[in-house]
Amino acid sequence: MQRPETRRYLFSIDEEGFYLGRPEDFPALLEMGYGFEDTWILRTARPEYFRFAGITGRQLQEWYESRRFCGRCGKPMIHDEKERMMRCPACGLMEFPKICPAVIVAVTDHDRILMSKYAGRGNILLTRCSPDSQRWGRPLEETVQREVMEEVGLKVKNLTYYKSQPWSFSDTLLMGFFCELDGSDQIRLDEEELSLAEWG
Questions:
Q1: Which one of 3, 7, 137, 176 counts the least CB within 10 Å of its CB?
Q2: pLDDT of 132-179, one tens digit each?
Q3: Radius of gyration over alpha carbons of the chain, in Å?
């Protein structure tokens, strides 16, 4: 099948190429019985690398769409030929994919761990997540302390970085921490963010 110009190469996984295109770019695949699915299927799709490819492709598609015109001078942006970047040929502005740093935290008190449940969602979590945590240039450690205080009214200490995970559904890079309770264990719930928080 000839590759239309509207189809854009994104990346390869084990030499298998992944491309971004519009539905009309794929008539032969549609004739073969392939179809389109809502992106939420990517939470459970198999194999796992298809999940990664699909949601990363969606993230890049949304980023490309939102960077069609220069935010400084309004001229059309072009794809850079050397790296993943949109560039304005008129004023030189360079735009790279958006990454929103966030923290996700496990609060412990000896053999207990704080469990919380988001407001309006059904699942109970061992951790809390805070999107856009670096909005004011705050260090990640201070963000952990502030978020725990704001959402459950607890002071924490002895922060330990665990690891990071990209979460492409929200352009987020989650940075995980463990920390220990510092003082009172009495929870003061922020009911706008959480419906439940308790020690387990």
A1: 137
A2: 444 456 788 999 999 999 999 999 999 999 999 888 778 888 999 999
A3: 21
